[in-house]
Amino acid sequence: MPGSIDRKRIGSDTISSIGLGTYGIKNYSKAFEAYVYGLTNGIDHVDTAEMYDMGRAEEFVGEVIKHVGRDGVFITTKMLPNRLDDREKIVRTAQESLRRLGVSYVDLYLIHWPNERLSITQQVQNFEVLIDKGLTRYIGVSNFSLNQLKEAVYGAKKTPIVALQVHYSVLNRVEVEEQLLPFCMSQKITLQAYTPIERGSVKDNPCIKAVSERTGKTPIQVSLNYLISHENVVAIPKAERIEHVKELIGAMGWRIPEAQMNYLKKCLQ
Ligand SMILES: NC(=O)c1ccc[n+]([C@@H]2O[C@H](COP(=O)([O-])OP(=O)(O)OC[C@H]3O[C@@H](n4cnc5c(N)ncnc54)[C@H](OP(=O)(O)O)[C@@H]3O)[C@@H](O)[C@H]2O)c1
């Protein structure tokens, strides 16, 4: 299990710094073994969406949860923006997701990306119906700009926005770190970094490889450790191969030394 440096606050819970994404799974039976391994060896949250494989990814998470147990797994799912204009539609959509997941509630429900036809305030207030109905414990947003995030945070009436999920990796960091991260810190919002290893391609970057050689950690682990060394950041890489999941777990429980961190930032400029 990761030590306290890799337990991160989300709402009033704590979760491991690394979670598992579920977009683009190819071999579900192989993936089952990998996710069960992850969720019983130090990873305790999983990210999915109604959109992924047209609901199949949520069903897959349901199968894994049935095996490892609901308690102790923090489940995030996401709703498509075109549901957000009508509260009944939101509730019906969530009930379908929960049925696929085989659970009575999720821990975190995200707006997958903003609905451009509706004010942010209106869509967030509609989305809050999920809290009223007990279908989720927390709500958050994904793919929101800083201004959209601010409107969501200030527009939420009944419950705070606890999470922002965006593309954040060591190779895609400047905008996130300059704009989103400071606001998230100030509002106690957890930032969930998606595509955090750039689909595996971070391992070929010479700057990351150099830090890997100096720290004795793999380039994937260095790349993830860079992200989770920020206090309010968790990363949600996807891995359906068990050897990959083992490598992801090894990204937790240590920190890149300051000198290597400085070298990495300079080298990547
Ligand atoms: N909110 C949004 O709009 C949004 C958008 C994109 C993604 N997401 C979420 O974020 C998750 C992660 O993002 P992503 O799937 O786009 O990209 P990613 O996590 O950066 O990359 C996934 C790829 O990396 C490979 N991989 C995993 N561990 C590895 C390792 N140790 N060594 C080498 N390769 C490794 C995986 O291979 P194997 O699977 O073969 O093991 C898979 O092909 C998604 O699954 C999804 O849940 C959210």
Automatic annotation (TrEMBL):
The lineage of its organism: Archaea, Thermoproteota, Thermoprotei, Desulfurococcales, Desulfurococcaceae. It comes from the Archaea. Signal peptide: none annotated. PANTHER family: ALDEHYDE REDUCTASE (PTHR43638:SF3), OXIDOREDUCTASE, ALDO/KETO REDUCTASE FAMILY PROTEIN (PTHR43638). It comes from Thermosphaera aggregans. This is Aldo/keto reductase. GO terms for molecular function: oxidoreductase activity. InterPro entries: AKR, Aldo/ket_reductase_CS, NAD(P)_OxRdtase_dom_sf, NADP_OxRdtase_dom. Gene3D superfamilies: NADP-dependent oxidoreductase domain. PROSITE patterns: ALDOKETO_REDUCTASE_2. Residues 18-268 form the NADP-dependent oxidoreductase domain. Pfam families: Aldo_ket_red.
